[in-house]
Design brief:
Elements (H helix, E strand, L loop, with lengths): L24 H13 L12 H4 L5 H10 L1
């Protein structure tokens, strides 16, 4: 995997836009705090705004990864 694809664990959220570690309460609090330190905001329901904070695919990079597989 190219170095630019290494993603810190706390930046991985589920498809609903919630922290991915929600089953582990303490870790979920840490994950949310780290995201908030980076400027990510959450709704009252605990969701991030995908339109504002969502990942946008880099098609060239995705092609490189698929070629390497």
């Amino acid at each position: 995997m190219p170095d630019e694809m290494e993603i810190p664990w706390w930046r991985v959220v589920n498809s609903a836009g919630r922290v991915a570690t929600s089953k582990i309460h303490h870790t979920a609090q840490v994950q949310r705090a780290l995201l908030e330190d980076e400027g990510v905001t959450f709704s009252d329901g605990g969701h991030i705004d995908w339109d504002h904070f969502g990942w946008t695919a880099d098609n060239g990079l995705i092609g490189q990864i698929l070629e390497a597989c």
